[in-house]
Write a structure and sequence with these properties.
alpha/beta
């Protein structure tokens, strides 16, 4: 055979192989506050339930590509969620407390806008309020992450296809005298639904919130009642809305791993991590249908609590299931240890000791966090990198500058 023909066939085969590895469907899962210890604790607990010592894999912890990610912000080695989310959404560092605004005051644009302009459908989902730091970084910009109303007003401006979470933290502003965000969102053409089963396949511009009487955040998994909205249901709904021939990008946050760890509540942190992993399993099932077209990335914005495992003789991981009084844990925002009731602090401390968990802080830490990836383009996410590298590599994998 002619050498030129052979060379042409090699080039064609290489190009086709590269094309086949370009993902059409991309899931970015962010476990807020989820470090290696939180993952290991959840795996150890699942093993204990099977009456063995070990680590029973979560849905994502056996992904073939594993990396580590540094999380420092522009002004602190220990990041806050908004600065970390800015890095994960935009590929740029900023100061703690800022969302998609540089330290010098310039506005940053998240990859969700770039991918939308490239023709992909876009989804943003969380277990907390949709105007909180991590989801906000994928659709809004604010010099103060606490400007929840202003952030919420920006939700419809991106013309994205799917949003989900607990609700708005300040739907009528701090004083309750601003136009209702629900009405503004509806006027922009979005359908607000309160039950995932109300969403039909292919329905566009959907906002899925939990029941109005449930507040702005999904209940902790450890407190969940039968009819409560779950992150698994949200992930399933996202796929129903977003799946199309061109493809989609969706960011899905497990936001309350962080809050459980701020409270140094080991049992709640374990169950939130498992709940997060169950949502990832929905994406894994989707990947199994389209393995050459799907990319799943699982990471964290930072670690919270300095969690340590001391599961030695006398510790009982099955006590994760033991119900203790968590009545003073604030589910809107985390409470520092000094603000908790003394009896709750003592109960949580004793519970952690019996389970085998220890803590070094009630705040974030600066330790690197894990990255897990599977699917088309996943090889880009192995090894050690900075959090600003992740959105850049997502765009590279998807062929978007």
């Amino acid at each position: 055979m002619n050498k030129k023909i052979i060379l042409w066939l090699v080039v064609l085969f290489t190009a086709l192989q590269a094309y086949a590895q370009t993902p059409k469907y991309v899931f970015l899962f962010i476990g807020d506050g989820m470090g290696l210890a939180q993952v290991s604790a959840a795996e150890a607990y699942l093993s204990a339930k099977d009456k063995v010592i070990g680590n029973k894999y979560l849905s994502f912890s056996r992904f073939p590509i594993i990396g580590l990610c540094t999380t420092f912000s522009a002004d602190s080695f220990t990041t806050c969620s908004s600065a970390a989310a800015t890095a994960l959404a935009c590929g740029s560092k900023t100061n703690n407390g800022m969302v998609n605004i540089t330290p010098s005051g310039d506005t940053l644009w998240p990859i969700s806008y770039k991918l939308r302009d490239a023709g992909y459908k876009i989804g943003i989902a969380t277990t907390v309020s949709i105007d909180h730091a991590t989801p906000a970084a994928f659709y809004a910009a604010s010099s103060k992450r606490s400007d929840y109303y202003d952030i919420g007003r920006q939700l419809p401006l991106g013309r994205f296809n799917f949003f989900a979470g607990g609700g708005f933290l300040s739907p009528k502003g701090k004083k309750g005298d601003q136009p209702d965000l629900h009405e503004l969102v509806s006027e922009a053409g979005y359908t607000i639904v309160r039950r995932p089963q109300e969403i039909s396949n292919g329905k566009d511009k959907v906002v899925l919130f939990q029941s109005e009487n449930k507040g702005s955040n999904l209940p902790f998994a450890i407190r969940r009642e039968q009819d409560d909205l779950t992150l698994t249901q949200i992930t399933e709904a996202a796929i129903r809305v977003l799946e199309n021939d061109k493809g989609f990008f969706v960011m899905i946050e497990g936001g309350q791993i962080d809050w459980a760890c701020h409270n140094n509540d080991g049992a709640a942190a374990v169950l939130e991590t498992i709940d997060f992993a169950e949502a990832v399993q929905v994406a894994v099932d989707f990947y199994n249908k389209y393995p050459n077209e799907t990319l799943i990335i699982v990471t964290a914005d930072h670690e919270t609590g300095g969690m340590g495992l001391n599961i030695a003789k006398g510790a009982n991981l099955l006590l994760v299931d033991e119900k203790i009084d968590r009545s003073s844990v604030d589910t809107q925002t985390y409470m520092s240890a000094d603000e908790k009731k003394k009896e709750e602090k003592e109960a949580l401390s004793l519970h952690n000791k019996h389970i085998g968990f220890g803590w070094t802080t009630t705040d974030h830490t600066g330790t690197a966090v894990p990255i897990y990836a599977i699917g088309a383009g996943s090889e880009l996410f192995g090894g050690k990198m900075d959090n600003t590298d992740i959105p850049k590599r997502i765009c590279k994998a998807m062929g978007v500058e």
